[in-house]
Design goal:
Elements (H helix, E strand, L loop, with lengths): L17 E2 H14 L6 E6 L14 E2 L2 E2 H10 L10 E6 L5 H10 L2 E5 L4 H12 L3 E4 L9 H13 L5 E4 L9 E4 H10 L11 H4 L6 E4 L18 H14 L4 E2 L2 H10 L2 H6 L3 H11 L3 E3 L5 E3 L1
Parallel strand pairs: 2-5, 2-7, 5-6, 8-10
Antiparallel strand pairs: 1-11, 3-4, 7-9, 8-9, 12-13
């Protein structure tokens, strides 16, 4: 479905808007400046057969598939010098054929693997593309912030002993993670639960298998606990529709401060989906029943 609306004049700031062409032209120079020698990729798990909001990744906002808005942000990372290194990891189900077509039309890559085993899907994708490290963004987080993508990868590359870097303290849906190929291998060798589409990241962060570091909000303005910016339900879709109709401009990416300034100015937006939080975390706890083998060979639950 295509949705159109008048742009809000609430925000007129331009300093947080990034021209897409400038992003693409400057990416290689920025990567060289940081002396990144590894092959860096970005992986996104997405499937269209959602229980709560089917086909959500290819629904439209501002005349574009939702996944394209997310890919704009992913390709804006300074560690992504080629769109082909942004990989949507989906399933081999026929229902995801449409997703593959939409992603490839944008210019990014698609890897198809296990339906419920995201660990296997990720592992095989990383091996297939030969990535040494990856930024990992969730497919529901269409406003995931580029700055924090870069901060997690920068921290990961700065310490050879680190396996994974996560974010804490940001609004739900803004954070990303970065982890190494070594971390992926550790998890792949030790995970036991093959249905892990919910809570898969816990294999990296709650098992003791990986050495972890955390990136915290770099500005107080980046904190807004009541904001829910992930796409699971119709109410979430309505929140994103309002945000994009207020801030989206063709060819530009609006930033985190613009988003949060809008939500603070119009708190009624956050109230649209705030009632979903309890159900969201209840469902996560219920589905994330995961087991792994520790380094001593003992099977444990997370």
């Amino acid at each position: 479905m295509a949705l159109y609306g008048k742009r809000s004049n609430i925000l007129n700031r331009k300093d947080d808007l990034i021209p897409l062409k400038e992003v693409e032209l400057g990416a290689k120079l920025r990567a060289k400046r940081d002396k990144v020698d590894n092959k860096i990729g970005l992986i996104i798990p997405i499937r269209l057969a959602s229980e709560r909001l089917p086909n959500k990744a290819i629904l439209e906002i501002c005349g574009r598939p939702i996944v394209w808005h997310l890919l704009d942000r992913c390709c804006a990372s300074k560690y992504i010098t080629d769109k082909a290194n942004v990989v949507v990891c989906t399933t081999q189900e026929k229902s995801d054929d449409a997703l593959q077509e939409v992603v490839e039309r944008y210019g990014c890559s698609v890897f198809r693997g296990s339906t419920d085993d995201i660990i296997k899907r990720f592992h095989n994708a990383i091996e297939h593309f030969g990535f040494d490290a990856v930024i990992q963004v969730d497919g529901d987080d269409i406003l995931c912030d580029m700055q924090y993508m870069d901060l997690t990868m920068k921290k990961l590359l700065s310490d050879a002993d680190l396996d994974i870097v996560t974010c804490e303290g940001l609004p739900l849906g803004i954070a990303s993670k970065s982890f190494s190929r070594r971390a992926m291998k550790k998890v792949y060798q030790h995970y036991k639960t093959e249905r892990n589409d919910t809570g898969f990241i816990y294999f990296f962060t709650k098992t003791g298998l990986c050495r972890q570091a955390v990136v915290l909000p770099i500005k107080p303005e980046h904190v807004l606990n009541e904001a829910r910016l992930t796409l699971d339900y119709e109410q979430d879709y309505e929140v994103f529709r309002i945000i994009f109709e207020a801030l989206y401009r063709k060819g530009r990416i609006f930033g985190l401060e613009d988003i949060l300034q809008l939500l603070k100015a119009k708190p009624e937006i956050t109230r649209i989906n705030s009632v979903l939080e309890e159900e969201y975390w209840r469902r996560t706890r219920e589905k994330a029943q995961l087991a792994f083998m520790d380094v001593q060979g003992q099977i444990k639950k997370i």
